[in-house]
Write a structure and sequence with these properties.
With about 110 residues, this protein is mainly alpha-helical. It has one domain: Arc Repressor Mutant, subunit A (Orthogonal Bundle), CATH 1.10.10. The chain is built from four helices and two strands. It has a two-stranded antiparallel ribbon with strand order 1-2.
Length: about 110
């Protein structure tokens, strides 16, 4: 089996979308990633990766109804595709396998 795993950044994005469900759009995804990792991603980098994941078939998106709070602009809502769920399951299984049996990481004594 020759599986190409998603990257760690892709994993973070897909998991953020999964956690946010129907509220997964640019601002909330960025906030979720910052909360989980402590790192702030630029909106440009975020949307480039979201679009790439959609092209790969891991995400789908649609535009919500425009809101007056956003000056009549629509939010682009993202959601996981079945392929995205499969990719997350595969990378989780791999993580569990490589971490299996490792209880604690320590610095070797010299």
């Amino acid at each position: 089996m020759n599986t190409k795993f998603i990257s760690r950044s892709e994993e973070f994005l897909l998991l953020a979308v999964w956690r946010l469900k129907e509220n997964a759009y640019g601002v909330t995804i960025r906030n979720q990633i910052k909360e989980a990792t402590g790192k702030t991603w630029s909106y440009g980098a975020l949307f480039v990766m979201l679009c790439r994941l959609e092209k790969k078939g891991y995400l789908t998106s649609h535009f919500a109804d425009p809101s007056s709070q956003r000056g009549g602009k629509s939010k682009r809502i993202f959601q996981l595709s079945p392929q995205g769920i499969k990719a997350l399951k595969e990378v989780r299984k791999a993580h569990e396998s490589v971490w299996s049996g490792i209880v604690e990481l320590t610095v070797p004594q010299e």
